[in-house]
Amino acid sequence: MKNGAVSVLNAVKNFVWVILGLFILVATPTGWLYDLWAGEGTGQGQRPTKEVRQIDGQEDVEDFFLSQAPATITGGELVACPLARLRDVKQEGMHYYRRRGGGRRATYVSEYRSADYPLPVRERLFQDIVGGCFYNRYYLKELTDGSWLCVYFDDYLALTGAENYPVGYVRYTTTEERRMLDVMAEDYDLDSVYVLDMYRHGKAGWMADVIVRLVIMVVVVFVVVSVGDMWKKRRGKPEDV
What are the start-end ranges of the E strands in 9-101? Predict the structure, then answer.
């Protein structure tokens, strides 16, 4: 009976370790690591210098677009949009994996991941945890004049509640972006033609990012196990599993 209880406890512990490892692998916000070397300037995704102006109202958006002047925003209310886009667009397409027993399995990765509007809780959780490994979500940002602007940046900034955002440039929306914004325009005062893109595209390839996440996962698990072993030794109790 005792051996059976130990086996069940070991199985539960192994399951917890697997879940913890997968969570760390897919949910760790790694974007800030790559931004450490972004520097200051007027380049997209850099920390803004004093010459970079803030977008205050809807009437400023078209001027920033026509002049292609660098722009930024400051902290304030953000509304999550029902659309996310791959951080590395080169990941889009068919991906093939070898199966155990031979053969290959194909998986298609879409550039965009869309959801119903209003954004369901389950989809938001998926984007935060699973989809967050490869996708950045779009947001609406409230401007000082009460209107809203679609913005796109690295998701870790929303996770940490940043007050200062990187440099961006106003561009035309893509078909998928405009379709999403047209739906949200029924509830928000916005122009579905423009988006402020503040993401430094190409700062990290998706395969390299997976390797970074694996390294972080191994380090975290090693630290947790080491601390657990030290705690057991301090208590002076032998391991029972």
Answer: 40-41, 47-48, 53-54, 71-72, 78-86, 93-98
